Amino acid sequence: MITIVLTYRNRNLNIVKKCFDSLLNQTNKHFKIVLVDYGSIESYKNRLVKLVEKCAFIELIRCETEQQLWCKSRAINIVLKQCQTPYFFVGDIDMIYHPHFVEILHSLKNDKAMTYFQVGFLSESESKKDKAFNDYKISFKSSNEATGMTLYKTDILKSINGYDEFYNGWGSEDTDIHIRLKNDKKTTVFYDKGILILHQWHPKTYRNKESTSPFHSNLEKINQKYLEYTKITKRVSANKAFKWGDYNPENYKLLNTVNNEFTISNELSDVKGFVSNVLLNLKNEVVSVKVKRHKEYKSLNYIAKKILNKKTKVFLNMQIVNDLLLEAIIMNLRNCPYKFVFNRNSLEISLTIKL
Question: Is Transferase a UniProt keyword of this protein (predicted)?
Answer without folding.
Answer: yes
